[in-house]
Amino acid sequence: MYTKGVCPIQVNGRDYAAPRRPVVVVCLDGSSVEYIGAAVAAGAAPFFASLLSARTLRLARAAVPTFTNPNNASIVTGVPPSVHGIIGNFFLDRETGRAVMMNDASFLRAPTILSAWARAGSNVAALVAKDKLRRLLFDAADGDYASAEQDGVPVYSADLSEHVLRRGVELMRRRRPDVMYLSTSDFVQHAHAPGSDAANVFYRAIDEQLATLDGFDVSMVITADHGMNAKTDAAGTARIVFLQELCDDWSGPGAATVILPITDPYVGHHGSLGSFAWIYASADDARRTVMRRLLEVDGIAAAFDRDEACRRFELPRDRAGDVAVIADERYVIGTRRADHDLSALHGPLRSHGGLAEQTVPLLFNRPPRREPPNPLRNYDAFWVAFNAL
Questions:
Q1: pTM here?
Q2: Does 269 lie in the same domain as 253?
Q3: Cβ neighbourhood burial of 162 (10 Å; 0-12, 13-18, 19+)
Q4: Domain range holding 328?
Q5: Domain co-membership, 159 together with 293
Q6: What's the pLDDT tens digit per position in 23-50?
Q7: Cβ 61 vs Cβ 226: under 8 Å
């Protein structure tokens, strides 16, 4: 049953009003505006079409690096990575010199909005696609949290995302949580371009489930963790900057270590290739050499030292590398050729991580009573649902 009379709360320095109706925030992994627009144009997404006609679409910025973990962490905490501490799947522990995978809630430095409402007595739930996200973001003691992967749904399938939304509908019908978070997978977006038949079929299924959720009289905000771009040439060959090889050539082996924060077990999505990388180089001359040479490399859009990267992108300094390297919309960054096996990909390489994938949609299912924040971030989703709808 819907919890009535819950008082407003504050989480991570932001105020959230007592909800007028159940709040649902949906993160459609990898969903740039182009996917939604193409599905609407094809007549495959009537619910999305109704939101566009009602002018409830805004453009928001995702957290950089534009990867799944930092952005889901931002959305459920309502704050940037500088506060919650998650900057990717991996960072380099400077004391041990080892790459550390951030794969459980001990790495999260801020409470989630869901756990705060649960402690306040609300009925909360979260359903995510991959189990890595459930383990990273949620403590089972605070609410009902599950993943589609945990339910046995194949990871490399469109059904992983559809399962999340179907279970969300079932949960709303059966239990009507006060606060619910749903987060899907970007399997389809990694494999198929906006407007393709496969993408439109997928968005038709998503559209149907979102329309059903809307029918339960909820305050719903839909956003994304990042966009997606093709990273191949006209022949379908992946465009890759092998950054570790370059660093070894420029400064000598061992002078700099490249960490790819996109790296995770799901190599069929992206082959551990994204458009953002960290270089760890303790020596001043190595850093200066790398910074100078990087901008001569085709496909590199920007390079920032640690202080500038953390200031510009609101990142935690202790988990950041010495140099942030960002590829343009055409390229991804790898380490060495031998480190990346692209044979498992489900199509020509499509990926994310850079500034080219930062703009994401933020839609809401009813006209706002007050205008959302400006500039708008995807991690404003819960604030908008509680305070503006």
A1: 0.96
A2: yes
A3: buried
A4: 240-351
A5: no
A6: 999 999 999 999 999 999 999 999 999 9
A7: no
